[in-house]
Amino acid sequence: MRKLSLVILGVLTIILSIAPTASADKESRPLPREVVTVLDRLSLTGELSDADRAVLRKHPEIAAQVLDPAKITATSKTTTVAGSNAFQSATGVAARHCHISEGQISGHSVLGSTVYVWHHRADWCADNVTVQSFHYRQGWATELASTMYFRGVTANWNSPTPSGYAESFMQAHIENCIFKYGCINSNYPWVKIKTWANGHWYDEVGH
Fold it and tell me: Which residue intervals of the chain are DSSP H helices?
């Protein structure tokens, strides 16, 4: 019985010693040469061809980490109220109508998943003659994938008010870094909110 127990213990020891080694070997394998070639080109040019995407999709665990420069989407939303008392940020502003306007730009991986969203919000009031002021402005990033790093705000300004037309702009620096490769490129998403005295507004985005 003692001999059998020793045999079983020996077998278990061998199994436990092999399993972590196999996992470690998988983790330590270098990236496939064709993938490195695509990432080198992306790092140099900032672009992906259809052929490049096809190569990356053969390795979905890598493709999920790579920001596709061509897959950028935009959304916008606004809240409008009469007068200036409904928004705490607008306290003391004499205006006919006030607005909370927000623009968003989203980046996506080669597989289509969202890897970041950059937001810019501007609170503003107008009296049908001029845009009175931007009394609150903010920019922030959400939905950052583990391979995307927010490096800060690179541009932040608004045009003078009061004015018949006014703009608010914010831009971020977001870097894409790939496991076992390193940082391949930087993305600079921006949102510009354009406003008019009559309450009309829209946003532009880019990267």
Answer: 2-28, 33-45, 50-57, 60-63
- Round to whole Å and give the CA distance between 153 and 158: 14
- Cβ atoms 122, 195 nearer than 8 A: yes
Which residue type is seen at 12?
L
**CB distance 158 to 138 below 8 Å:** no
Q: Kind of pairing, strands 201-206 and 148-158?
A: unpaired
Record the tokens describing residue 177, joined without a space: 């870094």
Backbone phi, then psi, for 199, in 5-degree steps?
95, -10
- Report pLDDT digits (tens) over 144-195: 999 999 999 999 999 999 999 999 999 999 999 999 999 999 999 999 999 9
Distance of CA 86 to the CA centre of its chain: 31
Q: Which residues contact 116 (CB under 8 A, 6 or more apart)?
A: 67, 106, 107, 141, 142, 143, 144, 145, 148, 150, 174, 187, 189
